[in-house]
Write a structure and sequence with these properties.
This protein starts with a helix and ends with a helix. Helix content is about 80%, strand content about 0%. The chain contains seven helices and no strands. The protein is mostly helical. It has one domain.
Amino acid sequence: MSRDLRELRCWTAFFVVALVVSGLTAFPLATELRLLGEWFHVDAPGIPENGLQWWFRTIRDGLNDTYSRYPWLGYGTDWLAFAHVVIAVFFIGPYRDPVRNVWIIQSGVIACAGVVVMVFACGPIRGIPFYWQLIDASFGVFGAIPLWRVLALTRRLEKG
């Protein structure tokens, strides 16, 4: 196996694992927000009505209220988690035969760009604080980095 193919497979495997892990975090949202609330002391007196502590408390309280009244809405984030896993499965093709499956890598780069567009189009409409939009957009940016490397290595393999 060539050095380029070995590197390509490492980057692809990294991307797949990151995609699956980020997706699986959508299952235990209420528990995650409870823990973040404890760690960041979001119930301490004097928390300003902005900033990270306020945002974690707002999300935690919103999830708790929503899940207690409408638990079926959590089903949407279950599907989000499942979609991450399904998307990750598609990257098995480029792992096995990157040249033949280059279109999957290209689609992944396009999807990463779409994350950034979606964040800045929908975030303000949904009242998401700008600093949190930057965090969400970073998933698209940081997801594209290994895919760009995989794409470059695929082009080198294609040339022989």
